[in-house]
Design a protein that fits this description.
The chain has one domain. The chain contains no helices and 2 strands. A hairpin with a 4-residue loop joins strand 1 and strand 2.
């Protein structure tokens, strides 16, 4: 999934409700920098 947002937006909410996975990778890029994070959801016990 790819989405673009203006640089002045300080947050984004992305629903993964219909895309279950054990992990997700989020990448934010701009002209000079790239930020990537691995997200591992907590498992329900």
């Amino acid at each position: 999934m790819t989405r673009e947002h203006p640089a002045d937006i300080e947050h984004a909410l992305i629903s993964v409700k219909d895309m279950p996975s054990t992990f997700y990778k989020v990448v934010a890029e701009n002209e000079f920098n790239t930020l990537s994070r691995w997200i591992v959801p907590e498992t329900k016990k």
